[in-house]
Amino acid sequence: MADARTDRLLGAHVLAENAGDVIHAATLAIKFGLTVQDLTQTFAPYLTMAEGLKLAAQTFGKDVSKLSCCAA
Questions:
Q1: Are 49 and 18 in contact (CB under 8 A)?
Q2: Most distant pair of Cα atoms in the chain: their distance
Q3: How far apart are the first and last CA of the chain?
Q4: 16: buried, middle or exposed (CB in 10 Å: 19+, 13-18, 0-12)?
Q5: Contact between residue 52 and residue 22 where contact means Cβ atoms under 8 Å apart
Q6: DSSP of 7-70
Q7: CA distance 32 to 7
């Protein structure tokens, strides 16, 4: 969830196997006031659960039906 005015991440839910690997990144993003745009510009090793947070952030500004596994 992001603030519509500031684009800052306000909260996150992760419901997946290995969710603990992802939620730490979201916790840091919230603690340090990162925006959705900041998250889209992060790097995570591809094919890891952490990459899912970046892909989720990208959906804030793109048509989800047009995203692929390698969305940029």
A1: yes
A2: 32
A3: 21
A4: exposed
A5: yes
A6: -BB------STTHHHHHHHHHHHHHTT-BHHHHHT----TTSTTHHHHHHHHTTSS-GGG--TT
A7: 13
* CATH code of domain 1-72: 3.30.390.30
Give the amino acid at 40: T
- Give pLDDT tens digits for 29-66: 999 999 999 988 887 666 677 777 887 887 887 777 77
Three-state DSSP class for residue 2: strand
Domain boundaries, the chain: 1-72
Task: Give the predicted TM-score (pTM) of the model.
Answer: 0.62
**Which two structure tokens, joined as six digits, stand for 22?**
């992802």
Give CA–CA dist 50/47, Å, rounded.
Answer: 8
